[in-house]
Amino acid sequence: MEISTLTLKLIILLVPGALATTIFKQLTIRHREQSDFMFVIISIMFGMFSYLVLQLIIYLITFVKNLSSKSNLKYEKIETFAKLSNSNSIPYSEVIWASIISILLGFIISKIDHSKLINNLARKLNISNKYGDENLYSYFLNSPDINWVYLRDIENSLTYLGTVESFSETTEHKEIVLGQVTVYSYPKSKELYEIDRIYLVYPKDKLIIEQAKLK
User: Fold this and answer.
1) I want to staple 184 with a disulfide (CB 3.0 to 4.6 A). Which of 1, 70, 159, 197 is the partner?
2) Comparing C-alpha atoms, which of 212, 94, 205 is closest to residue 154?
3) Distance CA 103, CA 79 (A)
4) pLDDT (tens digit, 9 = 90+) per residue, 132-167?
């Protein structure tokens, strides 16, 4: 299938957005898998914002030059915006700079998402009580005050006490790695043995985790 020059240009212009979206997807936790359609939409949004930031930087540089030299330089639009419909003009240098901006943007937006800045602000303003897009399992274990936990394995009459090192979730199971682990019997809480690290996997409805308050 032959690709037109305009289509090729649009693909190249979307590279910054795809970079930022890939970083954001890798660094954030989502309960549901993102569809290809949403990936494209978010990529377009990230890409447009990257080019807007590039445009603002160029305007700022022009503004500073006008102040320092008392010149009257024109505020030029970047070629991406000025010649968007011109299929023969591909601003490779702008794509590269926008890609660098998009990488930083991906990390910044991921940090905002991880810190729940928007959700916390919405709760303070009584706009929404939503805590985020991840499920409660990830939200609970990602809480900054969650370090030591008790994990109850009632079917096998065991309790694990340890620090949360990592965790993940599939459609059927929940996985967790604990460090500095002490294993007790359940429900008598008799200490059985200690181990440096343990990997545990359970069906979604079989996992009980309690925050441990150590003296």
Assistant:
1) 159
2) 205
3) 21
4) 656 777 778 877 788 899 999 998 999 999 999 998
151 DSSP β-pair partners:
160, 209
Helices (H) and strands (E) in the chain, counts: 7, 5
Residues of the chain with CATH 2.30.30.100: 136-211
CATH topology of domain 136-211: SH3 type barrels. (2.30.30)
What is the DSSP annotation of 138-168?
HHHHHSTT--EEEEEETTTTEEEEEEEEEEE
Distance set, CA 53 to CA 46, 47, 59, 67, 195 (Å): 11, 10, 10, 21, 51
Question: How does pLDDT run across 16-49, given as a tens digit for each residue?
Answer: 999 999 998 888 766 566 677 888 888 999 999 9
Report pTM.
0.64
